[in-house]
Amino acid sequence: MPFSNLGLSIPLLKALVEQKYTQPYPIQQQAIPAILDGKDILGIAQTGSGKTASFVLPILQQLQDGGSTKNRHVRVLVLVPTRELAIQVNDVFTALGTNLPQPIKTMAVYGGVSINPQMIGMQGVEILVATPGRLLELISTNAVSLSAIKTLVLDEADKMLNLGFQEEMKKVISFLPKNRQNLLFSATLSEDLNNINRNLLRNPVVIKVEEEEKNLDLIKQFGYSIAEEKKGPLLRYILKQQKIKQVLIFTSSVHRADAVALKLNQNGIDAFAIHSKKSQLGREEALKFFKEGKVKVLVATDLMARGIDIKFLPYVINYELPRSPKDYIHRIGRTGRAESSGEAISLISPDEEHHFKVIQKKMGKRVTMIDGNAINLKGY
To answer: What mean pLDDT is predicted for residues 51-67?
Structure first.
């Protein structure tokens, strides 16, 4: 089914072509017509499933149908858990709204930066993408009003709950008018999320997109058995021997992400670390350089990596394993997208061997293992 069959306007279809969107993803096929019909949505779908465009496109079209509000009274609110996701969602609104006959001002607001430019920038904003804490600060200073909201989107609601935003989300919702459209998207459906669903959504259209297991078939997986103290030299060996041009490396902590990036740079490999302790400017710059190919290595924690969405990422390396098999699949799923093959490499210390066997069992795939200790790592 092409995008032209989903009820979208010609300017939006033109923008889709310009942004190289070809065929709609399953969640887009189901969500776009339902949102255009004014229905509430409960969408369960993983990152990378196309959910952002599934709400951006119909929202842009709905705002073209007329209506205006007072200044600083936004019409659409998108709540997200992280600054990176706020920026990413805002970018999608901007890119897909580029050809609209009535320009729509969109803005992303988040903590970690000065609030004053955001307060000034709220002039004329119709679509606001926000993290809950910063939004409440803006409301308290009367920089923005939510009384005219027509559509509320909770994006990655499971992460907002996991990060402890539940009380902030309740406060934000208390400022909204009762008569509005609600769109809730999440990777999982927990009991806490079920409670929000019951209190927030009205007869929602439920869309559940299963993880595309077939994507794993596009990913070549390798594991290296290696002593913990040799992980650094082995990582540098792999990067240099395989002449890797772009790779996302996962660590389990902020401290380890910094340490890995530092060692890589000391050994002549350009790398940036991206995590919650970095400044917002530093994070944006690292992500920009990585996407543009100016830096070939990005070292990230799981939370920060949620805002990184690159269609043709060729390599993912697990410097350390995540706690859960689901997180492992989410990590390696950053490669092997858009029908392009990818490679996922895991460095497995003796303490991680049992956990890696559990991950393989849950995944239903056996990973080819290589004895990293047998590799001559002298000079790396």
So the answer is: 89
